[in-house]
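ping. complex inputs:
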Amino acid sequence: MGLLKLENISKVFPHARGFLKAIRDINLEVKEGEFVTIVGPSGCGKSTLLRIINGLIPPTEGRVFYNGKEQKGINLDCAMVFQTFALVPWLTVFENIELALIPRGLSKEERVRKIEFYIDKVGLEGFEEAYPRELSGGMKQRVGLARALAVEPKILLMDEPFSSLDALTAINLREELIDFWNDPQISLKTIIMVTHIIEEAVELGDRVVVLSPHPGTILDDIRVDLPRPRDKMQNGFNEIVNKIFSIIA
Amino acid sequence: MDVDPIPATPISKVLGLIEILDDKGGKESIYSLGKELNFEFGELLAVIKAGEILGFVETPGAKVQMTKLGKKLIEGDINQRKIIVKEQLKKLSLFKYFINFLKKLHNRSIPSEIIMEEIALHLPNENTESIFKTMLDWGRYGELFGYNSDSDIFYLDSE
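pong. complex structure:
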């Protein structure tokens, strides 16, 4: 069994005209060390799926297994990076990262050591005392990333992390994300990222899971064997993008 | 001392420009880049100009081309990139001016208001706030300048 297994996951939300089925019968297994991207159009339940994996919301049906055991409630081995950064505006960069570590019961010294390490890793040295309002979008998302990495998660969940950024900033951060993933000093090995951008899913993922809209069901699970770093000019890149596009369309 | 302005663009965009040029074999037409990135032309020109004054790109004709230093930047890890950016910042007149200015002060620090006044004095045709914000973004990335908004103090981080 992989690190994470989703078994017949469905989620129904109450709606003004009855019920809304966000996702249906999702079966997915993720192995340790995999970078899985989940792609689908708006409203396919991608973000709902991430929140079920994290344990922030329970599935209506089905079960989540983590490390072979059924997971109920919040999985503390997961950390999330959000599209809108989710930074606390009245806290500095340092304090925003520390916020994620306080509930873990670490001593102040241990917290400072970890924060300094991840600030250095994501290139935020020099920005420690800046408030979110003083940062560009790219720097804000680096804080979101440092905060998630600082809890040293077994699985990093990323909810459209580059969608709020302009194309140039997103290119830069995508490349750096792969560097973090390959960095032997960072314990992170498994990433699950949702996106609506097919090129992004192919550029980053070992596998691209393709979801249908309303409700989200898995249409395909495509392995991407292209060498990294990947880009659109690479042989085979556009073929995979076109294949996914035709599946969704 | 003559002080030249800098384009109002965050350093992350400049790094992104070098990444995309690297993906494209080192050079690309400015117009094609604009279309591909969906950038407003003026905004893209500001990013390219920023890359040029930092020594990471050149702009022969309507092309934008990565320099050797740009290649070195993109091949380095995050901390190597920051060191390269810092060295390039130290060559820009705006940064040179404020490094010297801050070095002469006690604690190498001063309220940001004074920095703004200095910017307005030397660059009267520019948007002071925008120059300050950009100088701080680049300066923080290069670990050259720091700013504490609680105390409103702008300071020389390291040289």
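The mean pLDDT of chain A is 93.
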